[in-house]
Amino acid sequence: MTTRVPLEKKVLSENDRIAAGLRARFHEHQVFCLNLISSPGAGKTSLLERTLERFGAREHVAVLTGDIQTDNDARRLARFGFPVKQITTGGTCHLDARMVERALADWPLEPLDLLLIENVGNLVCPSSYDLGEAAKVVVLSVAEGDDKPLKYPAIFFKAALLVVNKLDLLPYVSFDLARAREHARRVHPGMAILEVSCTTGEGLEAWVRWLEERREAAKAGSA
Amino acid sequence: MHELSIADAILEAVRKEAERRPGARVIKVGVRIGELAGVDPEALSFGFEALVRGTELEPLALHIESRPRRQRCPQCDSTFDVINDRLACPACGTSETVFVGGDELELAYLEVEE
User: What is the value of ipTM here, to two decimals?
Assistant: First the structure.
């Protein structure tokens, strides 16, 4: 006899369970955590470099950076004097909550108030995995197609903010900024969008302001 | 290609359920995947078949129910499937509607032979 047994649970419930644990710890220690996602080469590491260099020594920031191989990004980011740890996934195309939990195991969270996680360069897979972050941020460079939000709707839907990077290259590419904004907001109405160039520094003040505001709002919310 | 990890998570859930039902044989697992889940059904089926092959679970079928994005209209309270990214309410034309579903990545059911 064949019976149908209803299950009704999330496929990634184990990941979600660990992510919920991380979120609770971030909340407890008032750590504002962001998960940065983009395709390879859109400029996540450059954005982090430009962000860290704007933070003074008084700031309590830490970075986890994920890659399939090499610790190149961690080395690039470590020179700003903040704690940086590389997560090498060894082939896996995304970070999951367990990798973050493991990376944080010997890191005290108490002294931190901002944790920036740079995901593996990939617009698809990281969107499925909650890392316990307060918000996902998607980075899109103008060297890519302005229809990416329509091609990869999951991440543009789930991210709280779109950072369009490499503005300085606009004169040389066919990327249409207005169309990119329109495409992003078609998938995610009201999506916050910032436009920056990590090369010239244009727009970075607004990005740091966004970060500060969100961080303060998160603090106020948990106080 | 994270579909392989997702297929693995599905099989883990199937094994757990099978353990709870000694003597029963799981013949099919049903999953629900929203268009905003970021999971490609074809890649998932491919990964699923590859992982099942040669194991005690073979033959095990995977049924994928694809779910469209769904929005609700705050004006006329109708819920609708989004076609071609059009988020405006098809009933009353209101442009600002609210997301209600379409990012599912869920185990829906198992079919077991007892």
Answer: 0.84
How far, in Å, CA of A155 to CA of A188, rounded?
A: 10
Distance, CA of A120 to CA of A142 (rounded, Å): 19
- Looking up residue A60, the CATH number of its domain turns out to be 3.40.50.300
Do B85 and A1 lie within an 8 Å CB cutoff?
A: no
- Report which of A157, A177, A152 is spatially closest to residue A166, judged by C-alpha positions: A177
Do the Cβ atoms of A64 and A87 come closer than 8 Å?
yes
Per-residue pLDDT tens for A82-106?
999 999 988 888 999 999 999 999 9
How much helix, strand and coil, in percent to the nearest 5, is found in chain A? Answer: 40, 20, 40
Tell me the per-residue pLDDT of B25-59, one tens digit each, with 9 for 90 and over.
999 999 999 999 989 999 999 999 999 999 999 99
Of A5, A8, A94, the CB nearest to B2: A94
Residue B54 Cα, gap to closest chain A Cα (Å): 23
**A33 part of a folded domain:** yes
